[in-house]
Please model this.
Amino acid sequence: TFELQHSSSRETMAEEFAAQANELYVDEDFEGAIELYTEALSFGDNVQYLVNRAQCHIQMGNYEEAVADSSAAIQMDPSHAKAHLRKGVAAFNLEEYQTALKSFTQANSLQPNDRQTKTWLRKAQAEVQSEEQSAALEENTAPQAEAAAASTAAEASSNASAVAQAELQEAEAKKKAAARFRHDWVQSQSVVTITVYVKGSNADNCTVDIEPREVSLERVLTSDDSWQMNLDLFDEVVPEESKVDFRSTKVEIKLKKKNASRWESLEAPEGSPMEAEEEDEAEAIRKRDMYPSSKGAKNWDALAAEVDKDDKPEGDEALNSFFQQIYSRASEETRRCVKVPPK
Model:
């Protein structure tokens, strides 16, 4: 009986720690949540606590720790889909795309209707395919490049123009190869992460500017060539709380949302009110005053002044108006002595 009560008490304490950890996770206090999940696990192994702690590590960028936690969870329960998903996400961020693809494939087989798993699976497949294509391209082009270099060297002494042409073609080929760099994005309730797949980027050759409604990236490719990306964002972000992470094969831009809500798309739709620029007040006045016509521009304020001038009373009407003004300003005693012409 004592052992049963003691076991029940330990489970209760573990559940209390886990419940507090869940609350901290919702508040985005991931470090505090990790500590409490660790306390909960001190009372005994639990698959869900390991999976939850792995997710906290992912949010903090501790991808190796996330792989360790999710792998331990998989050993305890190989059918736990979220454990495979967490391992795949962590491995993907470590650029271990083959491992990530395997994990996402397993997660997808366990929960085939999960949209998040399908999204990650497509991303991993694209990365693996890109790696395979790059490897095949390097394997196929290496002998050709060596042969071309030998041929160029042999002809250099007798045909300088041919060498120049070959160099020009090579430069153009490099430009075409680097002309396009794809990007994608994922979001949580509070953060948008944009991934731009530009290999070899760092703070020296890549500049990222983050504004409340816009993100721009410029990647220097050669001394006289660069590639730019400009995005008009769906909603506002907080530049001071956003950050850029340069990796060997990509650039990650993590944007802190100003409003905690789901974005329908990464970029603002065309023609949206936020995208349109407000018209300058001086320009609005100019458009109001100057109306184009076949007879030239008209200043409507000046025309109004002329109309007022033409409407001034004359003759008897002017005299009556004059006496009415005097009468309206006079005292009561003066008014008794003055007979005002009728209006």
Remarks:
- Residues 218 and 251 are 11 Å apart (CA to CA).
- DSSP finds twelve helices and nine strands in the chain.
